[in-house]
Each structure stands twice: as structure tokens, then as C-alpha cells.
Amino acid sequence: MPRQVDYEDRRRRIAEAVCTLIARSGMEAVSLRDVAAQASVSMGAVQRCFRTKQDMLLFALEHISQYVSERANQRLAAASTPQAASTLLSHTLAELALLDEESKTQAHVWLAFVAHAPASERLAAVLHDTYAKLHALVAWLIRYGQDTREVPQHLDPDREAHTLLALADGLTVHVLAGHHSPATALAILQRHIDHLLENASDRG
Fold first, then answer.
1. Which entry of 6, 42, 124, 172 is 20 to 30 Å from 182 by CA?
2. Alpha carbon distance 94, 128 (integer Å)
3. pTM of the entire predicted model
């Protein structure tokens, strides 16, 4: 009996290979031959999983988008007891900014896709959907803070979520460029969150 192939597992391996190559040498380094070698599969196996290079890149972006979203959701799910909104916001934004050493590869890959999105409607659509989900998560946390009276009632959760996501994205770039250390970036995030709480105290 010929061995059955788990195509979803193979597709994930190929996506991880694409991400490794992008992080190492940039988007231009992604070739069929190199992806096959990195994933330890044949070039034919890659072609059977993905009809075009664009399809392969799109799946790799969806793979990294899922990783970013799951990091934030897992952080929330890991809380065994109710936590302060400030703590949840701090931890969630730190996960989204991909600041730790473990996430450095994903940060490189994420920014590479962001840079190429203007030239590809399909890549841009996946990024738009991912940002929309992350925005909804951050806005929910801000509303949670308003319910617990940690965040001022007059603030617009959607507007603040836009600001926080933009800040997290910007800090990702600054850390990769060497302008900030991860510790400094985390401190900047925390100062902004603390500012929200100070406003709540002032109005209390």
C-alpha cells in the first residue's frame, strides 16, 4: 500500500519553509527550488500543493497571520483568574508586536509581507482581514477596561485600538531596525497604557 500523504501538514511545512527563507534573505529569495530544499520535499511536491508561487506566498501569509492572532488569543486564554484590563492590554500588545527573540523570524516575515502588499491585492486582502481581527480584539479589551472603570468612559475604543495597533506595528519596525531594544519597546507600550489609566484616575 502506498503511503498516504498528509497534504495539510505538507502545506504547513512548505509555509514554514517560505517564512524561514523570507526571514533569512527577503521575499526575493523565495524560489521553488529553495523552498523545496528547505521543506525537505521535492519540487514536484511543492507544485502539487500550490498551483502558483503567488498561491504559496498567500498561504504562507495566512499561516503567519494565524500565528500572530493565536499568540494574542492564547495569552488571554491562559489567564486562570480575571485580570486587570491594563495587564491584558500590556500582554496582548506585547504579543502582537512580536518583540521577543522567539518571534523575531515572524516579525521579519510579517514586515516583508506588509511591504509587498501594495503590489498584490490578494496579499493586501489577507493583511486587511488580519488587522481587522486584531483591531476587534484590542477594542474589546478597551471596552472591558471601561466596564471595570480602568479606562475612561469618554474614550472611543475603536480609535484607541487603531492607535495601539499602529504603535505596536511601529515598535516592531524600530526593534528590527535596532532603534529600540525589546525592553525599551515594551516600556513605551506600557507608558501609553498607563496614560490611559491615569486619565481614568483623573476623572474618577
1. 124
2. 20
3. 0.85
